[in-house]
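Dear colleague,

Thank you for sharing your sequence with our group. We've completed the structure prediction you requested, and as agreed, I am returning the results in plain text so they can be pasted directly into your records. Please verify that the sequence below matches your submission; if there's any discrepancy, let me know and we will rerun it promptly.
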Amino acid sequence: MCLSIPSKVVELHPDEQAVTVDTMGVKRKVSSHLLAEPLALDDYVLIHIGFVMNKIDKADAMESLALYKEIVSKLEQQEREV
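Please find the predicted structure tokens below.
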């Protein structure tokens, strides 16, 4: 099973068909070759193995990110209790 964390587009590289995304504070350049629709700054996308697979709604992205942050927080809490 593969989970994709929503990533925010923070930089466009149209000459390379790529974008730089921010995934929970980690920035990296990924390919947008597989996406038919154009991307803009502040769009949210899902990525798989370095490729943008689809663009998602900002509200859905925010909801998913909140859940991921909650999971991370609970895991960190469990580690401190051990």
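Summary note from our side: The first strand starts at residue 7 and ends at 13.

Kind regards,
the structure core
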